[in-house]
Write a structure and sequence with these properties.
This protein is of the alpha+beta class and about 150 residues long. The chain is built from three helices and six strands. Strand 3 and strand 4 form a beta hairpin. The relative contact order is 0.14.
Length: about 150
């Protein structure tokens, strides 16, 4: 006997309406933090590329095995976007959060599979967040390269 019941599409359409109505301005705020996260991601990428290029020039291309991910929806929260800087199991998360006027939470560097942290919060844009991200990337590079 073949089972032919289909799930109630209207039920899930209604659920989407209910969840979306909780915070009607969230999509616009996510757009703002997404733009800021993309700028930070570009800066992180260029920093990593400068490191990688110089490591190659010095005959140490093995130091350049790094990745800067694309900006994507945050894994834990619907009001945030994130990108990662990683080398092997070492990881740094940059999470742009669409609360109030927006903020950035930097998590790590830490070893994937271990407790995440330390965390640092900064404004969405400006020298403070750029310097904090730069410092965390340097820390990740040092830790992931054995000191």
């Amino acid at each position: 006997m073949k089972y032919t019941r289909q799930m109630d599409r209207a039920r899930f359409r209604k659920l989407a309406e209910d969840l979306a109505s909780r915070d009607p301005g969230l999509a616009e705020r996510i757009g703002v933090v997404d733009d800021a996260a993309r700028l930070l991601r570009d800066q992180a990428f260029h920093a990593v590329e400068a490191f990688r290029e110089r490591a190659r020039e010095l005959g140490a291309p093995y130091l350049g095995n790094l990745e800067v991910s694309a900006v994507e929806p945050d894994e834990k929260h619907v009001d945030s976007v994130q990108f990662r800087v990683s080398r092997g199991r070492f990881e740094l998360l940059c999470i742009a959060i669409a609360q109030d006027s927006g903020k950035v939470r930097l998590v790590g560097p830490f070893k994937r599979g271990k407790q995440e942290g330390p965390c640092h919060e900064a404004p969405l844009r400006g020298d403070v967040v750029e310097k904090a991200l730069e410092d965390r990337i340097e820390q990740l590079l040092r830790e992931a390269s054995g000191g």
